[in-house]
Amino acid sequence: MNVSWPSPDYDRQIDLICEKLDKARNIFCIAHPYSDGDALGSQLALYHWCRAAGKNCVVLNFDPLPEQISWLRGSEVCQNYLPEDVDFDLAFLMETTEARRMGERVEFFKRATTTVHLDHHIGVVGLGSINLLEEKASSTCEILYNILERTGVELNRECREALYVGIMTDTGNFRFNNSTPRSHEIIARLIGSDLVVDDIYKLVYENTNYHRVVIHGTVMARTRSFNDGKLVASWLALDDFTRIGATEVDADGAIRNLSCIKGIEAAILFKEVEGGKVKISFRSTGKIDVMEVSRRFNGGGHRNAAGAQIDGKLEDVMQTVVAAVAEALPAGDNCNA
Ligand SMILES: [Mn+2]
Fold it and tell me: What separation in Å is there between the alpha carbon of 308 and the centre of ligand 1?
């Protein structure tokens, strides 16, 4: 099937990366902190490709893996250091919107001769010597597939499964608009004859733990409605995590229960974290550009899903941010703030 690539430049970048992959002996990959399906999926897909191609690949990961993705084959090889005695020819930075998010980890990049940055978020500034940043791609795994399929190395089951999970999770199990014909076309090739998609679904979405259910329940029970039900918000304090025995990862996805309420324009979830900071997740049902709102708080993301982290007391932050989102409501909806 003919695939229309976004631009000839994109095509040339892929060729260049394939050339680097072909020549490389020692490769490492890194992604943003607190892995998700797309970050870990792209790292492990590269790892499995490297194994099939006879190359050494170190998967750098510094945080505990969420249970929904820790079953992925190869996740046990994740390590939090690079061997000192190895010269790395190639490094991949997956799914990272900005250097700030990487903190000191960005230093690892200097260890490789060639650095490749792959991402699909909006407005990303490339951090690599080669950057493949494609906003129309559903996921980093989709971009990586575009590269790996061109290498001529057959993608083994482990590699395809990791890519599948990245695309599946970033498209919300193929519900979001980033589930394009191209991503479905890739998915068809990834499934092939041997991926068992209902097993993968259960491992990712029906494999929850007690703490996760309780922390999600806490979020739901505290849901408050503003502006005649156009906005909903909820919150988690640090001591909720201690009391329930849940981790921050357990709270992932909790905003979804809020964002599916009929008639809302936006949902906001506040999470108090260490160091006097509050993490904020925003979801919009379409009219409000929550990325714009999140940028006012030094955050970022997409029009319908964004995040930010700011200093301050939970209560003060909630008041300020809810007011900012209320301001962004379309005229006529912005009443009774
Ligand atoms: Mn992604």
Answer: 16
Q: Would you tell me the crossing angle of helices 157-170 and 140-148 to the nearest 10 degrees?
A: 150
Average pLDDT, whole number, for the chain?
Answer: 93
> E strand or H helix at 191, and its extent?
helix 181-191
Chain segment 271-323, per-residue pLDDT in tens:
999 999 999 999 999 999 999 999 999 999 989 999 999 999 999 999 999 99
The Å distance, Cα 36 to ligand 1 centre, comes to 8
Mean pLDDT on 183-208? 96
Q: How far is the CA of 51 from the centre of ligand 1 (A)?
A: 23
- The per-residue pLDDT for 5 is 53
Model pLDDT for residues 28-47, shown as the tens digit of each residue: 999 988 899 999 999 999 99
Q: What is the pLDDT of residue 334?
A: 58
pLDDT at residue 333, as a whole number: 62
Segments making up each domain of the chain, as ranges: 8-205, 210-327
31 C-alpha to ligand 1 centroid (Å): 10
Cα(53) to centroid(ligand 1), Å: 25
**How far lies 4's CA from each of 11, 146, 171, 181, 297, in Å?**
10, 12, 20, 11, 37
* Nearest by Cα to 144 from 170, 123, 107, 125: 170
The CA 120 to ligand 1 mean position distance, Å, reads: 7
Q: Is 297 helix (H, G, I), strand (E, B) or coil?
A: coil
334 alpha carbon to ligand 1 midpoint, in Å? Answer: 32
| Whole-number pLDDT of residue 100 | 73
Distance (angstroms) between ligand 1 centre and the Cα of 231 equals: 26
Q: Which two tokens stand for residue 82?
A: 């690079």
* Ligand 1: centre distance to CA 328 (Å): 26
Q: Quick one: fold of 210-327? A: Diaminopimelate Epimerase; Chain A, domain 1 (3.10.310)
Q: Cα(174) to centroid of ligand 1, in Å?
A: 13
Domain 8-205 belongs to what topology?
A: inorganic pyrophosphatase (n-terminal core) (3.90.1640)
